[in-house]
Amino acid sequence: MYALVDCNNFFVSCERVFRPDLEGKAVVVLSNNDGCVVSRSNEAKAMGIKMGTPFFQLGKYCRSGLLTPFSSNYTLYGDLSARVMSLLAEESDHLEIYSIDEAFFTLDGLTPEALEAHCRELVTRIRQWVGIPVSIGIAPTKTLAKLASHFAKKYKGYRGVCLMETEEKRRKALGMVPLSEVWGIGRRLGPRLQAKGMRTALDFAGKSREWIFEELHVPGLRTWEELNGIPAVEEENGESRKSICTSRSFADMIEDFDSLSQRVADFAGACARKLRAEGTLARKVTTFIWSNRFREDLQQYYPSATYCLVTASNTNQDIISAALKGLRTIYKPGIRYKKAGVTVSDICSEEEAAGVLFDEGDPLIREKEAVLSVLMDRSRQDGRLGELRLAVQRGGHYADGIRSEHRSPLYTTSLDQIIKVY
DNA sequence: TCTGGGGTCCTAGGACCC
DNA sequence: TCTGGGGTCCTAGGACCC
Known about the structure:
Elements: E1 2-7, H1 10-17, E2 27-30, E3 37-40, H2 42-46, H3 59-63, E4 68-70, H4 74-90, E5 94-99, E6 102-106, H5 112-129, E7 134-139, H6 142-154, E8 161-163, H7 167-176, H8 189-195, H9 201-205, H10 209-227, E9 243-254, H11 257-278, E10 280-291, E11 304-313, H12 316-330, E12 337-349, H13 350-353, H14 363-381, H15 415-421
Parallel strand pairs: 2-4, 7-8
Antiparallel strand pairs: 1-6, 1-7, 2-3, 5-6, 9-12, 10-11, 10-12
Helix pairs in contact: 11-12
The chain binds a DNA duplex through helix 10, strand 9 and strand 12.
């Protein structure tokens, strides 16, 4: 049996940990740039505020005090997530962290009832020790466990834990769930299947294997098997990411090459830093720039360019210069750009990168550049020095210049704040 | 005025090989 | 005049997830 732990309204719950006065009130957390709603309290959901609503449309609620908005504070959410996950790690045999607010785990040698009792205890403990409300679903496959956790969240009677262990419960649950709420059926597939007369997850699970494969191929068949109690979703090997992306929308549109290249250099620098942090290197660097897709009156343009390094690297110099080469090939004057980003891919470990046959670089220079990148990392962390960076970079935090007008303090990770709180 | 960011997997089609 | 068969690898685009 798989258990799925899902933190309820996670970002909002994180903000409430340090603002208990907001319990029972309508609260939303906004995306970067204070762009749109990405997390809602139950009260905000009840007001009819949808996921993804542009924040500027909620001005009337905020001004009248009916709604409290927060800019996103990922340092805070990451820290509280780590606390929840470490608690779960202590209490389970095999924990698979699926996202910032979700994790699967198994427990060997327990009856379903004992597992359910254990999960009830966990719900209580996580609420007491970390302050975050969670729901847990237990079922024979991950997709069913996800469904069970939705039930646990939706119906108070479950007291946070829904066990779906029998065939009877499975069929009953599937019959109640609209198809589009199933894990793996998204906003395209849902309507498409509905048009074919399917309404609930049970309708879908009742189709023949052949029909599903013909219509939906491998991914659809996986979902179908999972709903029918056959495990088909593998664990993701979280060890090595296959790509790393850093991108931002700008508060204002950018037209000139120099400003854009400063941003791209900073995004590339952030990608290089993320590579160094996990001890990997990349061979491909993709630069992309986007015009403003909401401004139909302006010319649209969404180009990207990939530059392949001869030798995999994670130094600021290599990644930034590759990203700028890409930018030069796609930049077109006269377009007003709203967003840009850099993705590094074809990622390998240091051992794999070493011993390349046709290595064109000078090893001594590479060594020096690697040392310089490490010094740049340190200069960012150590406020005394000021930030050491390449002249082409804009500097400061790469997220500077985007709106963040409702940000909460770094309650758990800034020493000043920790002293205030305690 | 203001509309997010970061991932994964699969498939089809093209380029290339012998 | 007539022009095969069987592979692999890469990429772009589309679907999904949080």
